[in-house]
Amino acid sequence: GTLVKHFKDLAFMGFVEVVKNLPTIIRNLKFCKADVLAFKPDVLILIDYPGFNLRIAEWAKAQGIRVVYYISPQVWAWKEGRVKMMKRCIDQMLVILPFEQSYYEQRWQWPVTYVGHPLVEVVDAFKSNPTNLAVNTNKPIVALLPGSRKQEILKKLPIMLAVSKHFPEHHFVVAQAPGLDADFYAPLLAPYNNVSSVSGSTYALLNKATAALVTSGTATLETALFKVPEVVCYKGNPISYAIAKRIITIKFISLVNLIMDKLVVTELIQNNLTVTTVQQELHKILYDQAHVAQVLKDYNTLYNTLKAGGNASEQAATAIVSQLTSLAKA
């Protein structure tokens, strides 16, 4: 394939951030539409990123282009009304969370295909052939995964780093985000003696970590698949958070808890994310063996649930090719 634009140039998180970057988003939509028309695809496969891709799906359907959507928008969490448009504009929906299939079929009478979760095969592949972690320490490691965007890192990482002073017997390692230079992290890490960072080595870090402090999102699931006890940390723009709190209906913010439909890992959100609360919860997943044993037991159940779906990438590709083949024969 040919990369014409990297998704990092398109990603903006939060209501306020989207409004501030609206001209850029509009330009990117125009660029994408022009590129699709020039390519003339038999099928347009949209992956995740609903704020952008649902607009492209609606436009593509109007152009007579067949649309496949892989990794469903989280309509079960917020803005559920989008499903009506999705049913109209998406010819084939491939979902990766076990509960999504029953959600669409029972609530919306929309047959969708559950293909399993792609992270299972990715993490399993890494574990079978791991790379070394370039960190020089004999201490147990606590992984810090503060996110991928500057705005969220600056809100959460200082709190995570401050906690390190209370655990001198551990070494804390920050997973740098792709696309962010070490110079961005250096002044944040400088005051702490037992902290270092790695770039492009998040899986190697999780493979060696004893515990982790993780921002909400896909990283929470990756951490669980590596069987690392974690504390989920979230702090966003106050205005964006206030708006989200009024329209999001889910019980949890981490994928681990959502999939398991119970509290497996502690979630510290917004004002509850403080140095004191993180210190308390990190102590629990480092030293409370009964608690750790329960978390690991739940992680095994989670893994088996996701693994039951099969190889997600293969199943997704097979489902797309099968439908296109049947259409060609019709």
Structure overview:
This protein is α/β, with parallel strands linked by helices. The chain has 2 domains: 41-116 and 311-329, Rossmann fold (3-Layer(aba) Sandwich); 124-307, 3-Layer(aba) Sandwich (Rossmann fold). Helix content is 52%, strand content 15%. It has 15 helices and 10 strands. The chain has helices spanning 15-20, 22-39, 50-62, 82-89, 98-108, 118-128, 150-163, 182-189, 202-208, 218-225, 238-247, 255-260, 275-287, 289-307, 312-329, and strands spanning 43-47, 66-70, 92-95, 113-114, 141-145, 171-176, 195-199, 209-215, 230-234, 266-269. The chain has a 6-stranded parallel beta sheet, with helices on both faces. It has a 4-stranded parallel beta sheet with strand order 1-2-3-4, sandwiched between helices. β2 (66-70), α4 (82-89) and β3 form a beta-alpha-beta unit. The model has no long low-confidence stretch (mean pLDDT 91).
Give the full name of the CATH homologous superfamily of the largest domain. Answer: Glycogen Phosphorylase B
Strand content: 5-15%
Sequence of strands across the biggest β-sheet: 7-6-5-8-9-10
Number of strands: 10
Give the biggest sheet. 6 strands, parallel
